[in-house]
Design brief:
The complex is a heterotrimer, with one copy of chain A (about 260 residues) and two copies of chain B (about 200 residues).
Chain A: H1 14-23, H2 32-42, H3 53-69, H4 76-93, H5 105-130, E1 149-157, H6 160-172, H7 176-179, H8 189-200, E2 207-208, H9 221-240, E3 244-248, E4 255-259
Antiparallel strand pairs in A: 2-4, 3-4
Helix pairs in contact in A: 2-5, 3-4, 4-5, 8-9
Chain B: H1 12-25, E1 30-31, H2 32-38, H3 45-56, E2 61-66, E3 69-74, E4 83-91, H4 94-106, E5 109-110, H5 111-118, H6 124-132, E6 136-138, E7 150-153, H7 155-161, H8 172-177, H9 189-202
Antiparallel strand pairs in B: 1-3, 2-3, 5-7, 6-7
Helix pairs in contact in B: 1-3, 4-6
The chains are: A mainly alpha (about 260), B alpha+beta (about 200).
Chain lengths: ~260, ~200, ~200
């Protein structure tokens, strides 16, 4: 940014700037050479656009000389500006050199005048801004603001892919097998019920329960035990539902069932 | 301000404006005496307060007496505007998505069936969560001993997952073809799932 | 809230009450979008704001547009009653005030531009102070070599200085007409500043 403004006070590296800042002395309350120039220009009491830059340069150089005489250590910025103004002043006093490249002395002087005018305009704008009705001084916000209570609610979501992956997981996980009951030797109660239900409807007389064991479940004792237990439980369930009657003549005697109509 | 204010009190509308501004900007409720002290001479704080209260009747805020002091407060029926609900969406837990998947594939499914497939007990929280999401609901009781409740998926479930029917869910064979399923299947798993689809379709 | 609210928006008077309650409760200005988000479905925050602004015209508090946001503030002519509410703020240095003005009138402004206008380096403390006051914030980086950061003014700035739009900055038109706002800025920077004003006004 600074590069495009080569005719101004040179601002080089960060190190240079830091060194310059260390030397800054706030001479009589001026904030930098431009501020000082503006103050001096205002003493000419003319429109800043019609200011005499040669006079201004002279005023500035006088000020710097005076400061030097008073052994006031001036910041580097002030001295850079002084050198540049001395150069500009000499160019303004000499006839223009047609061979010279870059902006003419008049253009440089005009730019300086513009800078001063702009700085002054910004100062006026700043003052106008600060003079507005300001919050906390002229206008006021709600004294007892009510915050918005935040209620956090968590919802859960899942995608179809999640669902399918989850199902695949439940059907394939390693620990899945051990939890599956090995049903080869087990006649479940549901199976017994399914077998009994269609048969009892036509069962008008007493029939021994053992006759209802499924085929092939009589030989292996383990299978017989399972089938007997589940068929007995199924019979109890159907008796409870009023579908059949159950009887046993003596302890450990055969259990007989009869359909109820 | 000139001495004139001693004798020329502001007109009633001006006094009402003043009380309005003071009450608005005050961090704490103010008593009539406190208001009076802050108004120019000759003002009647109580009367201005009365007019202000009437002006705000039925508006979004109201002038309310709190003990001996007065304040402007939100109308009680609008208090719901003062809370902001932050809805946070998180992924369903693994237990919940698996339970849901089993219900979707095997519906109607009893708790015992879900537990048998997952190999762990189904927690009450998971079922409640899925019901709250309106993804599962109770189906008909199973006509087996104990008449256990069954779970089925809901219309909401189909809407969320973009399914016309749970039968549109890819079967295990298709899952495997899609690379979603690797590892060995239990011998009867595929058949079992297919069977269940059939029975579900019949209902 | 039932689904019905999707279709049955509250009537205009009810919407106005709601906006009134929300604006009253907030110490900081709220944008139309923020208001809209807190109103039930189907409400028109902008229209309700318009009615509310008209209702409060001439009262002790007023509805004010502050940048892109809206707030209820006490009427400026009643500031003499508010001595008790005045918040004593640290007096700003001349450097801070000028830096703030340069950012406001030239935004987005780079540090180099501020330094060029003031003729001195911007001290770090000034930028920090203005940021702490929530009057300036970082804008988008300038698309020039080095991609310098830019500064823009905030919603807090608009609120503090009671500006409805960046165009309301005192003397802005005159400064622009005099060519004092775009003198040595590169063409793209100028465009950037213009864009910002435009887009701010459009929002």
């Amino acid at each position: 940014m600074a590069d495009e403004f080569t005719e101004g006070p040179a601002r080089d590296t960060v190190a240079d700037r830091l060194a310059a800042e260390a030397l800054i002395v706030d001479v009589e309350g001026f904030e930098g050479p431009l501020d000082l120039l503006l103050k001096l220009a205002q003493t000419q009491k003319v429109d800043l656009r019609r200011i005499s830059v040669t006079d201004l340069a002279k005023q500035y150089l006088d000020f710097v000389a005076r400061a030097g005489a008073m052994r006031i250590e001036l910041a580097a910025d002030y001295l850079v500006m002084a050198a540049w103004l001395a150069f500009l002043k000499s160019r303004l006093l000499l006839p223009p050199d047609p061979e010279e490249e870059g902006p003419s002395a008049e253009e440089q002087a005009a730019h300086l005048a513009f800078q001063l005018e702009r700085l002054e305009a910004m100062r006026r704008a700043a003052a106008a801004l600060m003079a507005r009705d300001r919050l906390g001084r002229d206008v006021f916000a709600r004294g007892a603001p009510q915050g918005v209570a935040r209620v956090r609610r968590v919802t859960r979501t899942a995608t179809l892919l999640d669902l399918m992956q989850a199902y695949a997981r439940t059907r394939t996980r390693d620990e899945f097998r051990p939890f599956v009951m090995d049903r080869d030797g087990v006649w479940t109660m549901e199976e017994a019920l399914d077998r009994l239900r269609p048969l009892i409807g036509s069962l008008a007389s007493w029939v021994e329960l053992a006759a209802f064991l499924p085929e092939g479940w009589n030989r292996d004792p383990a299978r017989r035990r399972s089938a007997t237990a589940s068929t007995f439980a199924a019979a109890l369930e159907l008796a409870r539902n009023g579908r059949l009657d159950l009887e046993q003549s003596d302890p450990f005697g055969p259990i007989r069932i009869r359909g109820r109509t | 301000m000139s001495d004139g204010t001693l004798f020329d009190a502001p007109d009633p509308a001006a006094q009402e404006r003043m009380v309005e501004a003071i009450l608005f900007a005050s961090a704490t409720p103010l008593t009539v005496a406190e208001l009076q002290a802050r108004l120019p001479h000759g003002c009647d704080a109580a009367a201005a307060l009365g007019r202000l209260t009437a002006h705000y009747a039925g508006r979004g805020v109201e002038v309310r007496k709190l003990g001996e002091a007065w304040a402007i407060r939100t109308a009680p029926d609008l208090s719901h505007l003062m809370t902001r609900e932050i809805v946070e969406t998180r992924k369903l837990s693994r237990a919940a998505i698996e339970t849901l998947a089993i219900i979707a594939y095997h519906q109607p499914a009893t708790r015992a069936e879900i537990e048998e497939i997952r190999g762990v007990a189904v927690s009450k929280g998971v079922v409640e969560q899925l019901m709250e999401l309106d993804w599962i609901r109770l189906g008909r009781r199973r006509d087996t001993p104990g008449r256990p409740v069954t779970f089925v998926v809901t219309r909401g479930f189909m809407d969320h997952f973009g399914l016309a029917s749970p039968r549109d869910l890819p079967g295990l064979k298709e899952l495997r073809a899609a690379g979603l399923l690797d590892g060995t299947l239990p011998a009867d798993a595929e058949k079992g799932a297919a069977d269940l689809f059939e029975s579900a379709a019949e209902e």
